[in-house]
Amino acid sequence: MFGKFQQSEIRIEVNASAKIIADSLLKRENLIKWLPPLGLNQEIPQQLTQGISFTNWLGLIPVKHQVNIANDQCLRFILSQGIDGYHEWYWGENWVQSRLEGVSFLPLNLGQTFALLSLRDFVNFQAQKQV
């Protein structure tokens, strides 16, 4: 893979429980709501579990995701094609953290920041609905 090695780790506070965050990251119906620009498709099962693979498109660039870890505290994707590396999500009560490392021509930090802000807005809204 050609490109630039990039790494970034961002942790933010959210007004949501660990359960709401987990459901937002691990369930397809929720991923589609907060990450529509990634072109999430129907090949993704209802619940992300270890071993599942799917390809999404960032414009004309395919990014293959293989779920390496999926549990109630962590989601880790091994990335290939448009990004060679990994993307990890960790969460707990009122916080979420994203760690991304890879080689790519894409501006990974920009996409990671957008994803975290979008997730924050989504989980905060979900938490308000439950009050």
Write a brief structural summary.
With 131 residues, the protein is of the alpha+beta class.
Cα distance spanning the termini = 47 Å
How many domains make up the 3D coordinates? 1
Mean pLDDT: 91
Sheet with the most strands: spatial strand order? 1-6-5-4-3-2
> Within the CATH hierarchy, at the fold level, what is the topology?
Alpha-D-Glucose-1,6-Bisphosphate, Chain A, domain 4
Tally the beta strands.
6
Any idea what the CATH superfamily is called? START domain
Task: Determine the strand fraction and express it as a percent band.
Answer: 35-45%
- State the shape: globular
Tell me about the largest β-sheet: 6 strands, antiparallel
| Poorly predicted regions | none
CATH architecture: 2-Layer Sandwich
Structural class: alpha+beta
Helix amount: 25-40%
Q: What is the CATH class designation?
A: Alpha Beta
Give the H and E element order.
EHHEEEEEH
Q: How many H/I helices? A: 3
Radius of gyration: 14 Å
